[in-house]
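User: structure tokens for this one?
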Amino acid sequence: MAHIVRGTRVLSRCVARPFSMSATNLNRPEPSSAPSMLDIGTRRIFNEEHDMLREAFRKFVEAEVTPRHRQWEEDGVTGRDVWEKAGAAGYLNVNIPEEHGGVGGDFKSATIVNEELASAGASGLFSPHSDIIVPYVSKYGSDEMRKRLIPAMTAGKCITAIGMSEPGAGSDLQGLQTRADRDGSDYIINGSKTWISNGQLADAVVVVAKTCKEGKAAHGLSLFIVERGMPGFERGKNLVKIGMKANDTSELFFSDVRVPAMNLIGEENRGFYYMMNELPQERLTVATAAISASEAMFEWTREYLAERKAFGGPLSKMQLIRHRMAKMKTEIAVGRAFVDSCIERHDASFLDAATASMAKAWASEMQDRVADECVQLHGGMGYMYDYKIGKAYVDSRIQRIYAGTNEIMMDLVARIVFPK
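Assistant:
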């Protein structure tokens, strides 16, 4: 294990060993028994180096993200400068190998960045870029592509998006209509995408397109890098959502976009298999954010109930409310234990697709239940967007939809319940 501190950069480099924990790790409290579920120094899957990273990144969020987030929500997009600041501090592409142009940390370190943003109620930042999109370039791209793109992606100077969903095809990847036809040493891309996160900011978009006219669509999908400024590549308006307002979300249009063959990620017609390999990490990323957001909502609500007085005393003294909070904490603690086991397995490269689907579905549904309960316990204040809990309520709803709807998740789990 090596620990690196460079200016504001703090990184834990751990060699993952399957389910091995030191005696020191076993002595770490779980969030369920800590004074606050947000305390640093908890959870047996982490160590002291991870704690240093969490503390440093939490300070970064408090200084660079939280004070500006409301303005970003009004603008419908985050500031590009915060991406470059995060890149300079080593908070982007944390889990991308250093030899590919990334930071070179373990997956647990990348999870800390995701969790802290979720706990702060910050939308539109970092994790999809670092943990969902750039891995396609790192794992399947050519050496030339990695050298050309990943250093700028790690520095925050090249922001990414992924173009999967289309107006007529959301969770059903086999229904995609965007095409890429070979033309000499290039491909010509035609089609459109919708609900694309980072759609306005993105400098490079991983586009899923059909490259085979025959057979099942799943066997004929390929992935391409479409870069800002390529003729025929246009963005629609920034879509207005009910939540996650700081995360710019757009339609993308491709009209005879000429893309050089060197922008093909991996092999032609292998895109579906690459996505199947990467979706477990994407779904685990949603699950980790859901648990961390739930812990934050619980703590905000506990603080509010201790201060809010009614019927002659603080609401926290009323048995009904105490029991509801106790039940909520128990549910969050159970979810935390399961998701932490998934993080541990994925860090050791053992997480399977069905278990990741269980984690995504269960954690996101629990997040919605916690958000609803916390709003109720805040009363009228909970319905105000100026209160963090009101914003968290609307932000939570998308978790059950993106990265594959929870209905799709249950279908994937059912395949191991009743295998063919």
